[in-house]
Design a protein that fits this description.
Blueprint: H1 7-10, H2 19-29, E1 32-37, E2 42-47, H3 74-85, E3 94-100, E4 106-115, E5 121-128, H4 130-166, E6 171-175, E7 181-184, H5 186-192, H6 196-199, E8 208-209, H7 215-225, E9 232-236, E10 242-252, E11 255-264, H8 265-285, E12 289-293, E13 299-302, H9 304-310, H10 331-344, E14 346-355, E15 361-371, E16 378-385, H11 387-394, H12 404-411, H13 419-441, H14 446-453, H15 457-466
Antiparallel strand pairs: 1-2, 1-5, 3-4, 4-5, 6-7, 6-11, 8-9, 9-10, 10-11, 12-13, 12-16, 14-15, 15-16
Helix pairs in contact: 12-13, 13-14, 14-15
Length: about 475
């Protein structure tokens, strides 16, 4: 190597740079070059023509540089000037300051300070830090955005997990291209007879018997893409359960995924549990009184609404008692309802009066259902307060309860018979209908029918002969 090539840098006597080129080199080597005296007055400055964003700073010359420095930057420059005034080497060779000018705009500059041939002058070569600051600002924004996206991802991931584990439906996520399980909830793992961690990543088709490689995936894809959405049936390998697979195809991040809902014996159990919970809530919180009895009418359980109707303190006070004890006509009402419910499965409506534990009575409408079970058979009664409806019914003409044919016969009497005879005929029609209803409800039990109608047994027999009903259904 020719050592003369290093002479340019090794020669300490004088640089081999022509004076007319020195200013150009300094101006382009730095974004801003300032010649500063030890008092802080700007003697001269040169702005890099390749960086026009700094603008024209000619008004800085012959002025104190402190007039153009931010307050937090003054101490940095003072330390440097104090060191040069005392002839000492500065603590640092570079400082970062913030400039502002009369236009009230700021820009950061990183200066390196250099001695000159004049002991009273210092050369400050500055590098504009705005591109670096902008890059840092973008980096910080990107970092904050990344952190926010990460928190959102964690938030959605948590919600997704909670929903998956809270739903009672067995759900499985299957990759549409490979047929492998990507995710599943605990209900699905239980339906397939294994732990979720052990199943994730496995081929979904391998969890079922009698399926060739790819056969189940083809069936599920066909089901998901067809308009009919026909269910796929398969039998699990571990538990031997026959399941129906309902499939929905969706795309996320460009990948196709099959959402599979498993239905079968396990699903029916889940549905049964859910229905049981809902019915239990209705029983406890419902407005209608509900009473469960054994086959003889003895109360097994009752809800809070029934306790409110009967003014009973707690359900333990009525357990073991007959429901007839709380009915105005006692065992007659109870027997009528139980006989009809046993014969037809249910008795939709029956009007009577309910007697509270302290003797007060209340009009109610009841329905009875016969519960056929091996161990807990009996009857379920639903009672509703009908006292308000009773007021309305009292104000409604009784003609509404009479058949159209009977009313037509009565109306034909108008003009041909006195009003007294017409009213008597109407009364006979209503009376006959009530007696027929009572006899039918009691299954021709004349004693019970008489008690239901508030008649003596002899009076009932008289009316039965009057209306030709005496031999209807035979004697009791």
């Amino acid at each position: 190597m020719n050592t003369r090539e290093r002479d340019f840098w090794d020669d300490r006597s004088a640089p081999r740079i022509a004076p007319e080129h020195f200013n150009e080199i300094v101006a382009t080597a730095a974004d801003l070059a300032i010649v500063l005296d030890l008092k802080g007055t700007v003697q001269s400055l040169v702005v890099n023509p390749l960086n026009p964003t700094i603008g024209r700073l000619d008004h800085w010359q012959k002025r104190d540089i402190r007039d153009f420095l931010a307050e937090d930057s003054l101490s940095k420059l003072e330390k440097q000037l104090a060191a040069y005034r005392e002839g000492e080497a500065p603590a640092t060779d570079a400082i970062e300051v913030n400039h502002f000018d009369n236009a009230n705009w700021e820009f950061p500059i990183r200066y390196t300070l250099h001695r000159t041939g004049d002991n009273d002058l210092i050369l400050m070569l500055g590098r504009d830090l705005r591109p670096v600051a902008e890059l840092q600002h973008r980096l910080v924004k990107a970092q904050l955005a990344l952190e926010k996206d990460y928190e959102n991802h964690r938030d959605y991931e948590t919600r997704y997990r909670v929903v998956m584990e809270s739903t009672r439906d067995p759900l499985v996520m299957v990759d549409a291209s490979s047929g492998r399980i990507t995710d599943m909830n605990s209900a699905a793992a239980q339906a397939l007879g294994a732990e979720a961690d052990a199943l994730v990543g496995n081929l979904f088709g391998h969890e079922f018997d009698g399926m060739k490689r790819g056969e189940l995936l083809d069936q599920m894809m066909a089901s998901a893409t067809s308009e009919s959405r026909k269910q796929v049936r398969a039998t699990t390998k571990r538990s031997g359960k026959e399941l129906e697979i309902q499939v929905r195809l969706f795309r996320a991040s460009g990948d196709k995924t099959l959402l599979c809902r498993l239905e079968g014996a396990g699903a029916q159990e889940v549905i049964g549990e859910e229905l049981s919970e809902i019915l239990s809530l209705l029983y406890r919180e419902g407005s209608d009184a509900v009473v469960f009895t054994d086959p003889t009418g003895v109360i097994r359980n009752a809800n809070e609404a029934f306790l409110n109707l009967t003014d009973v303190g707690q359900v333990g006070d009525i357990k073991g008692k007959s429901l007839g004890d709380f009915l105005a006509r006692g065992s007659v009402d109870l027997k009528v309802m139980m006989d009809n419910a046993s014969r037809h499965g249910a008795m939709p409506i029956y009007s009577t009066r309910l007697e509270s534990a302290y003797g007060s009575q209340l009009s109610v409408e009841m329905s009875a259902t016969h519960l056929e079970a091996r161990h807990n058979g009996g009857f379920a009664f639903v009672l509703r307060d009908a006292s308000r409806l009773e007021v309305v019914r009292d104000a409604t003409p009784m003609a509404g309860a009479v058949s159209g044919e009977a009313m037509q016969n009565v109306m034909e009497l108008v003009g041909s018979a006195p009003l007294k005879d017409i009213v008597s005929a109407t009364t006979d029609v209503v009376e006959k209908m009530c007696i027929e209803t009572a006899v039918g409800l009691t299954r021709n039990n004349r004693v019970a029918a008489a008690e239901m109608l508030g008649l003596s047994r002899q009076s009932l027999y008289v009316k039965l002969r009057k209306y030709g009903l005496l031999n209807k259904g035979g004697e009791d």
